[in-house]
Design a protein that fits this description.
6 strands; about 15% helix; elongated
Length: about 120
């Protein structure tokens, strides 16, 4: 589960403990379990949405630098910048104790009032 440590302005900082018992590790990959990249981005997206209420529009870029292993602690640092079209550009970096594991560029839009998206 993602837990947000600090959200100041357009910066979101969060941490996640990668559960070694997660069933995803059984098939990805046997003998060398790694967290699939989609799951790494999902933690980023969850932290951004939890703090901003924004809705993901697009994932423009994903760069994976090193594998995330069962039991790793992820540290997420995301910066959101307003864009001219009303969206927010998000640049996020994910770290473990080994260093950078992933970098993402994505776009979000503010959630409309009244619970509409």
């Amino acid at each position: 589960m993602t837990s947000v440590l600090r959200a100041t302005g357009y910066e979101v900082h969060a941490s996640v403990r990668v559960d070694p018992a997660d069933p995803v590790f059984a098939g990805h990959y046997p003998g060398f379990p790694v967290l699939p990249g989609l799951f790494v981005f999902d933690h980023v997206d969850h932290a951004v949405r939890a703090e901003t209420g924004a809705q993901l529009v697009a994932l423009d870029r994903a760069k994976f630098v090193r594998p995330v292993r069962p039991g790793d602690d992820l540290r997420i640092e995301a910066t959101l910048t307003p864009a001219d079209d009303g969206q927010m550009l998000c640049v996020a970096t994910v770290f473990t104790a080994s260093g950078v594991v992933a970098e993402f560029r994505s776009r979000y839009r503010a959630r409309r009032s009244g619970g509409e998206s």
